[in-house]
Amino acid sequence: MPPRRSSRSSPKGTSKAQDTSPSQAPTSAPVSWSLADVNVLIDEVIAQQAKAGDGLNFRPSVWTSISACPGLSKPVKGGPKTGKSCREKWKRVR
User: Fold this and answer.
1) Burial class (CB in 10 A: 0-12, 13-18, 19+), 55
2) How would you class 78 by CB atoms within 10 Å of its CB: exposed for 0-12, middle for 13-18, buried for 19 or more?
3) Which of 27, 34, 48, 64 could disulfide-pair with 83, CB 3.0 to 4.6 Å?
4) Residues whose CB falls within 8 Å of the CB of residue 75, separated by 6 or more in sequence, listed in order
5) What is the H or E stretch that residue 20 is in?
6) Is the entire prediction scored with pTM above 0.70?
């Protein structure tokens, strides 16, 4: 009896690195922050400060609205900023 091939292995002659599907393709450019982008983030956080409470702990919806402002949705450098990337950058800036 011939040996059985694992269902996880690639067909002979192809490699997994070459197997790309549209669902795995990157959707946008990586997030990169210029000084102008950081200044816009700081200005937006200050403008939204009343919604934060003690310690500037914003709800996710506030970060989403911050990321939608014109300066961050069409940034100087890198891809568009998301609410999560804005929150993470704010943690590193403050």
Assistant:
1) exposed
2) middle
3) 64
4) 33, 34, 37, 81
5) none
6) no
Q: What DSSP string describes 4-61?
A: PPPTTSPPTT--GGG---GGGS--SPPP---HHHHHHHHHHHHHTGGGT-GGG---HH
Query: Hey, what are 67's tokens?
Result: 């990321």
- pLDDT tens-place string over residues 2-43: 666 655 555 555 545 544 444 444 455 678 888 989 999 999
CA distance 8 to 45: 48
The first and second tokens of residue 88, run together, are 């993470």
Domain ranges of the chain: 35-93
Q: Specify the residue for token string 């704010």.
A: 90
